[in-house]
Model the fold of this input.
Amino acid sequence: NSLLFAWTHAFGSSEVPVRLLSLLIGILAVFTPWLASRSLTPLQKRICFAVLCLMPLPIHYSQEARNYSLLFLLSASSLFCYYEILVTDSRSRVRHMLLHVSLVLLAFAHLFGLLLATSFLAVMFWRARSAPRRIGIAVYGLALSAAVMVPLLLGGSGKHMGGNFWITFG
Done:
């Protein structure tokens, strides 16, 4: 919602510019298989690209002014980055940073994104071999969940801004 707010202030709030943001994010999402640069063959990348281009729900949501395209982009980038790290045993800081930035943004993009981000962290927790790494991942997951849920439980940003912007649980 914050991204859409900034977008409408920059490009206007008529129908075309508002829907254009979701369309651009949706187009960017179909290129996420190339984040798995070494773990997927060129043919596998093209097949993933074709499948992502033909999926009906992302196509539908790319035409609306909703945050599902962003949810799709961040979840796909998290998936392909994590797959690249697992398959190639990559120590690339860029790939790890992109994975964690995607997970954090995914958690803040939508409540389903929080569920997916914590699911990724649960898999990372169970794959971790050392106890300190497991504790770090557990703290990371709890902190991320708290950062999203506590403001919602306290009334959300809509309460503080004087509007009905978020669903509140108060």
User: Anything to note?
Assistant: The chain has nine helices and no strands. The first helix runs from residue 2 to 11. Residues 109 and 120 are 15 Å apart (CA to CA). Confidence is low (pLDDT under 50) at residues 161-169.
